[in-house]
Design a protein that fits this description.
The complex is a heterodimer of chains A (246) and B (427).
Chain A lengths: L6 E7 L8 E5 L5 E5 H4 L3 H9 L6 E3 L4 H19 L4 E5 L5 E5 H4 L3 H8 L6 E3 L5 H20 L15 H9 L4 H14 L2 H15 L4 H8 L7 H10 L1 H4 L1
Parallel strand pairs in A: 5-7
Antiparallel strand pairs in A: 1-2, 1-4, 2-3, 5-6
Chain B lengths: L1 H5 L5 H6 L5 H8 L1 H10 L6 E7 L10 E6 L5 E2 L23 E7 L2 E7 L5 E8 L4 E4 L3 E2 L7 E9 L7 H5 L8 E9 L11 E8 L4 E8 L11 H6 L2 E3 L2 E8 L2 E8 L8 E4 L12 E5 L2 E8 L3 E9 L5 E9 L7 H10 L5 H10 L1 E6 L6 E6 L2 E6 L4 E7 L6 E7 L19
The chains are: A alpha+beta (246), B mainly beta (427).
């Protein structure tokens, strides 16, 4: 940390069109950070300055560089934001007994869970007997990521059938589904059971894409499906749908 | 779960191939509910389409057809192999018998083919999907030896299936899996074909009754219902929204349009006014674009105009969609080519007028609402009415007496239609 003392000016600006009072913190190398007053008051030092009313002209000597200032500011900001949000939590319990605590808003990405909560049937824990812990943790990861993205921008950006390459979630989604076949199918089942439209669409589309280049025989091999046709029956089906095979 | 995955496949061909994976897959993919989900997902599918040119309008042993198929970029593919006659339809067993045959109507990806066993006293009709090669034969209809001219209407009306969700019902249940159909034979009046007729003799086959019956159609307004009059005959009988439409002519002028809705009333016709700015003395062509009725009018050395019917009520509300003046049209190198070929010393204007003389309407582009296909002498041109640009698509010089546009939906129309009570599928 730099040892030179420089001035930190704390100025109070009241924005007319906002309810939250803002203050501007200025670091030693001249960069300004505007934050909610309530956020800034996480710092006892600043709190006293503001409460004493000396802020309009008082210069604080703070030996902090910009980066330090901004990081502590952002930490302060994010803590405060979390506190300001509805941080009601729910506990989801997987079939193998593991509990996961998540924000209620994240859990409500699942329509199934949403209905349970809204119906008032969720006490403290919501048991999910059809989902193992490994899958549940992934599902939660998906919901968190998509909830975050929805919160940061317009809700309409996260469209379930969006295939926009400019959508930053697309890349994350692509990585998310790079799992083994069994996991992928378990995710499909979980998404269906939990009624999470976006996840269902993503996982099913992934499997459909895997299928589209394959012949029926390759499909059987890849997905371990037993061919229950007799040779005559299979020939009959092929003949009736000859056009698709040409 | 299988259904959820499979309907997300990009094209129907693969999905149909997968019917052969296992019996369970067969039952999922064949189920009408699956088809509905598939078509709904592919709602914005750009249809492939094919033009079918036939050298006859009547039953003929020498019937010959040519096909031109278009891909997503409107590039045509076709073969000039003279042996391609009716091989397109050779899955129909009757064709191997070399009976007189004629394609008489089309709807989406279905064709209506008529044939007659020689010296026999009945006609046979087949409905077929030439892409899947599935067909069905209608009960025979006795011929009336005296009348040879008919106008044919082929109506398909998708059934709004009983659906579990209100959402589906609202969206109109996009599917071609269930439909009822009718074949309407409008018989030519006995004497003079340009006679004023307030009544028409028709023969109607309904898939709901599975039989033919005779009917007499009249109009409460005492209109001339005769579709064989020159202006009406040129435009033909067009099926749209489960109804037949043709031009109502009076004193050699267009009076309006006749609408015949046999699914609801097989004895009375309705009437719609012509668009206000339609030229009543010039020929028109009728067609369909995305289930809406359209009129195209080409006025020699004047303009090309396009109207669309927005509403059937109150004797019809039309909207002019496009109009382009002849002088503003860009013929591109078609003009230059014409000059080169004919060795013309004419001005551009004069050459244009010559080319114009040979132009006839072929079809509305199924995917582009602004464009129409025109037959121009020896070539087929695509005309964008918004930009006025004409683009040559291909040369075709054999005689065309009748033409059909087959449009392939995202899932092939089943023939026969799937029964409404299909067993429910388990995922």
């Amino acid at each position: 940390m730099a040892s030179s003392s420089t001035s930190v000016v704390v100025s109070n600006k009241e924005k007319e069109n906002k309810n939250t009072k803002k203050v501007t913190l200025k670091s030693s190398d001249g960069e300004s950070f505007e934050v909610d007053e309530s956020v800034a008051m996480e710092s006892q030092t600043i709190k006293h300055i503001i409460e004493d009313g000396h802020y309009s002209s008082l210069a604080l000597s703070l030996s902090v560089k910009t980066t330090m200032a901004s990081s502590s500011t952002s930490v302060v900001v994010s803590n405060k934001e979390k506190e300001n949000k509805n941080t009601k939590k729910v506990t989801l319990k997987s079939s193998d007994g593991e509990s996961f605590e998540v924000d209620e808003s994240v859990a409500m990405e699942s329509q199934t869970i949403k209905h349970i909560i809204e119906d008032g049937c969720a006490n403290n824990e919501i048991p999910l007997p059809n989902v193992t812990s490994g899958i549940l943790s992934r599902v939660i990861e998906y919901c968190k990521k998509h909830k975050e993205a929805a919160g940061e921008s317009e809700p309409s950006v996260t469209s379930y059938t969006s295939n926009s390459t400019t959508n930053p979630l697309t890349e994350w989604d692509t990585e998310f589904v790079k799992v083994d076949q069994n996991t992928l199918f378990d995710l499909i089942l979980a998404a269906n059971y939990l009624d999470i439209k976006g996840l269902l669409d993503l996982t099913c589309k992934t499997v459909a894409d895997m299928m589209k280049g394959k012949t029926p025989q390759e499909i059987r091999e890849t997905f371990h499906i037993k061919n229950d046709y007799t040779p005559e029956e299979e020939a009959e089906v092929r003949k009736e749908n000859q056009w698709a095979f040409e | 779960m299988l259904l959820e995955i499979l309907y997300r496949l990009p094209c129907c061909r693969r999905a149909v191939q997968f019917k052969s994976v296992s019996k369970r897959w067969l039952s999922v993919i064949s189920n009408p509910y699956f088809i509905r989900r598939f078509m709904d997902r592919h709602r914005h599918y750009v249809c492939k389409f094919t033009h079918v040119f036939q050298n006859t309008i009547e039953l003929n042993v020498n019937t010959y057809i040519r096909l031109v198929s278009y891909d997503h970029n409107d590039n045509p593919s076709f073969k000039f192999d003279p042996r391609i006659g009716l091989e397109f339809l050779d899955f129909l067993p009757v064709l191997s018998l070399h009976y007189p045959v004629c394609i008489q109507a089309s709807f989406n990806d279905l064709l209506l083919v008529c044939t007659q066993v020689p010296k026999a006293s009945f006609f046979e009709y087949y409905i077929c999907n030439p892409f899947t090669k599935h067909w069905l034969k209608l009960p025979p209809i006795p011929t009336d030896g005296t009348r040879t001219r008919v106008m044919i209407g082929f109506l398909c009306d998708p059934c709004i299936c009983d659906s579990d969700s209100d959402n589906d019902r609202e969206q109109g249940c996009i599917t071609n899996a269930h439909y009822r159909f009718m074949v309407v034979r409008i018989l030519c009046p006995e004497e003079n074909t340009t006679q004023f007729q307030t009544q028409l003799q028709v023969q109607i086959f309904s898939s709901e009754t599975n039989e033919w019956r005779n009917s007499v159609v009249s109009s409460p307004r005492k209109l001339n219902l005769n579709p064989f009059m020159p202006i009406a005959c040129y435009a033909g009988v067009i099926a749209c929204n489960g109804m037949l439409h043709w031009v109502c002519v009076k004193d050699k002028e267009i009076k309006g349009f006749v609408v015949f809705d046999p699914f609801n009333d097989s004895e009375q016709c309705h009437y719609i006014h012509p668009p206000i700015d339609l030229s009543l003395r010039h020929y028109v062509s009728l067609g369909v674009f995305r289930r809406r009725l359209r009129i195209f009018q080409l006025i020699y050395a004047g303009s090309f105009s396009l109207w669309e019917l927005e509403d059937y009520s109150n004797a019809g509300t039309w909207c002019m969609k496009q109009k382009v003046y002849f002088s503003n049209m860009d013929f591109g190198d078609f003009l230059q080519r014409a000059k080169n070929i004919h060795g013309l010393d004419y001005s551009d204007e004069r050459t244009k007028m010559m080319l114009y003389r040979d132009m006839t309407f072929l079809a509305f582009h199924p995917n582009d609402g602004d464009s129409v296909f025109l037959h121009c002498g020896n070539s087929v041109q695509l005309c964008n009415l918004r930009t006025g640009v004409l683009k040559r698509v291909y040369y075709y010089s054999s005689p065309v007496r009748s033409k059909f546009q087959l449009v392939q939906p995202s899932w092939p129309t089943p023939v026969p239609p799937l029964p409404l009570n299909a067993p429910s599928i388990s995922n």
